[in-house]
Every structure is written in C-alpha cells, then in structure tokens.
C-alpha cells in the first residue's frame, strides 16, 4: 500500500473513531473524559468487525444490492446503531467497574509517579536518620521496653537528635510533643523541650546570600552593625542581632535556606497519613484529623512567609498585652524570607526564679485567655522557646508565625463555655459546646449533658490535674462524634502548649483555678453598668426598625383574618438544588418507563407472524423491522439510566480529573 493511501486510510479510520466516540457520548448524555471515550470507541471499532461480520455476510449473500425496497437501508442503519451501542456498553461497564478518577490520567500519573519517587526518597532518608540514631528497632515495633532512667534518657536524646536532623516538620512535631506531659514520660519532655531553642544553626556562609538577595545589597550597607553569630536557632529560622543606621537595636530573623521543598514533601506525607486515619478509623473521623492536618499545613506555610508573621505581630500587638510585651516589626524591611523587628532585652524564660514563676505564669495565662476570648487574635504556639524573661522582670512573647483568629460568634460561645464551667452548669456547658463545634445530625444531648456534668465534677475540684482535664474533654468530644473546627482546634492546641509552659514556669501552677478566676473577672466586666448600657443601646438600635414596622404588619394580619382573606403561601421546591434533584429523578423514571415500554413492544412485534414485507431478499417484515428498531431504542435508554445510576454516588465527591 502506498504511503498516501495508507495515510488516507488512517485519517478516515481516525475520523470514524472520533465520530463513534462523539455519538456514544451524546447518546449517553453524560460527560466522560476524552481519553476514556476515545479508548472505548477504539475498542468498539476493533470489535465491530468480528461481532457484525455474520450480519454483513448474510446481507452480501442475499442479493440486497438489487433490492429496491427500504429494508436494506434500515438494516444498514441498524448495523450502524449496533456499532454505536458497543462503545456505549463499554463506557457503562467502565463507569461501574472503573469509576472516573480511580485511575489517574497520563499527566496526573506522571506527576503522582514523580511525587511517589520524591516521597520514597524522603521515607528512605527519614528511615536512615532513625536507624543511625538507634531507633530502627522501634520503627519495626521490636524495641525493648526500658525501665531504667539512664536508658530512657538515652532513647529520648536519640529521638530528639533524629527529629532535629529530620527537618522542620519533625522539629515542629517534637515541639508539640514536648508540651504533652499526658503522653510522654518526663525524660522525653525534658529532651524534646531542647528543640524549642537549641536547634543546630546554619553556617553564616549560607545565610548571607539570603540577606543580600532580599535587601538587594551587601549586609554591611543595609545595617550599621551586624553580629554574624546567631542569637538563636529554631526549626524554621535563626535570629541575629543588628543595629540600624538610625541607632535602633533590632533582631533579624532569617529563614533557613532550602527548607521549602522538604516542608512540601513532609506536609504531603502528613496529609496522606491523616487521610488514611480519617477514612479507616472512627476516632480519626470524629476528630476530623484531615482538617487538623490541613490546619497544621496552613500554619507551617504561614510560618515560612515572614510577611504573614509581620502582619500577625502587628495584629497581636494591637491587643491588650496584660503585662506581656510584644516586639514591633520594622515594616519596610520585612520580606518573605527576612523579618526585622524591635529587639527585646532579656534571656530565656527558664531562668525565672521560683518567686517570679507564679506571677509570670499568671500574666501569661491572663494574656492568652484575653487574646482568645476577648480580642479574637491569639498566639497559637506559646511554648517556652517563644518566651523571654525581660530585664525589667516582665514577659516578652516572640515568634508570631502561628496566630489563630476567631470570629465574634465563636468567641461568644467560648466565653459562655468558660463561664458555665466556672458555675459548673452542665446545661450551659452543653449548649456552649454545641455552638463551638458543628452540631451532628443525631446526638443525644441529654447523655452529653450528663457526661459533661460528670466531667466537671471530676476535674473542677481542688487539686485536680489540668492535663487529665484536657484528656477527658477530648474523650467526650470523640465519644459523641463531635468534629472540632480548625480554628477551635488551634485554641485547644495553644492551651495544651500553654499548660506545659506554665508547668515549666511554675511547677504546681493551678491552671484550672486561675482560668476560673479569669472567668469570674471577665463576668464582672460583662456585668459592669457601662458595658450593659452599651450592649442594651446596640440591641435597641437594631430592634427599632423592626418595632416600627411591627404594628402595621399586625394590623394587616388581623384585618385579613377578620375578612376571611388570611392565607398561607408555601412555595414547594423553592431551592434550585431540590428542583434539580426532582427533575433528574423524573428523567430517570421517564427513561426507565420508555425503555421498558420499547423493549416490551419489540418482543411483541418480533413474536408476531405475518405483516407486510419490506424486503423480499431479506425476508423481513415490517413488524420485525420496527421490533429491531425498538430494541436499539430500548438498549440506548437502558444504558442512559444505568450510567446515571452508576455515577450518582459520586455526585458529592470533590472534582477529580476524569479519564
């Protein structure tokens, strides 16, 4: 075969496959992916010859070419429709057996393959780090259970060094664990606490190019003086002291170079693990670990952008510090990778004396509760590494990369929750809790109220453990299927972190008693005469327009009732989503009825003898011809209904690329 002829044949074949794919998709009335539709049409084109060759052979052997009747034309039309039915059947079977999105498309496949390779490298790297630090047996679940303190200290040190070497995400994990005294022994808490401010620094030779790139010039031109020895090294950045040309002392916070790709891979691993837990465990679904992981990822990404931290710092500084000092950012010098801020003079908060500890802990608790309950902008990571003991004896709060925000309704519900806890009112605590978390469709409020009453009776007595209180509260939330929103989860995470910090500041600090005292003081403020007058004025201003319209509306209703014209107008299916649902359901019922009717009529006609002949060569009667056409119509309608049935369960799923 010549090349031009072969090219023409290939082009005609391609056009026939495309036409076949288009016809199948239009007749089914459902959108399919281009690749899936093309493959179905290609397979149908390959199968059409073997499946229809007996029919075509019978046509050739009957001498229909010379038959002037309409029969051969209809038979050829039926053959063409049978060819179209083949890709339709293939698409419906694929919809049932291989739903769209279950197999990634080519581009998505190569991207996912590249992601798998990257994750595999990261898994391998983390495994090598763990094995190098002696944690290999514990990864396989075969580590020995240590009972002696020296062995536990060595294991805790190995874990801390491994987390430090693994990078930003795992250092953050260690920082969170260092505040959870309810989960880990004291030896682990002490070791992991070193991750708060004792992270291996990056050499100055790697930091200087970052500063030069961000400021557009050498460091000695931008600053009057710059100390190249880091003041502190953290998981995401390290800080240096410097002096501006104005003479002001500042702290320059520089993001560690090259941590972006590693954080992306680690966050991808965290998301996938959270998705697995949420899909396979009941407690994962009840706690919403997917949303928690997403919130954790958003928080870390915000911490990587120091422009966000500068905005957060200004927002928190605008609140009432309550005895806690915040540094102010130098706005024009803050970029994505560099943050310049006012320098607070002091040292680590762990140097606080036994006499200072209770006062500092009380100031810190009062400050954070005020941020959460009153201002709505709060520091979400108050671990000891983010605190300073200032030279004047006060507290300084640092690192505003992780800041939570609460709207007025959530703040009001949290206020009522704390005030009801202070009064030990189970009904008030239940109502406030169900306003804080999304209300499930089915919940036994009476049982929840009794559980919260027992919780308060157990944990609000004198000398009770705040760590156990948080644990018991989370157990209740999980047991009743309550899902905690990310912004509220940030509050609980901040309070859990704060609890560990308060214990380090003042061993034996009564978190529960001090929180109840804060609630009492806040209640007094809310009941202040001026506050009540202002609240009443605001409510009255909002009610006045409605009160002015109320008499006219009451008079209109009374007049209609008096003259027998009072009626009730109810619009059924007013929501467009309800109309679409009912319309789709009616379409399916109608297609099913029409398909069943067409099939039944086809069977009756094919079983009826006699009738006018439409083709003598084919020995085909009019009844048979109509019956075969009705069978094709029945098949098309049934396939349309089946494809809608198979696709319906995925209507609520997120959009995924179709293949």
TrEMBL record:
Keywords: Membrane, Transmembrane, Transmembrane helix, Ubiquinone. The chain crosses the membrane at residues 6-24, 33-53, 73-94, 581-606, 626-646. This is Ubiquinone biosynthesis protein UbiB. It comes from the Bacteria. Belongs to the protein kinase superfamily. ADCK protein kinase family. Pfam families: ABC1. Residues 195-429 form the ABC1 atypical kinase-like domain. The gene is ubiB.
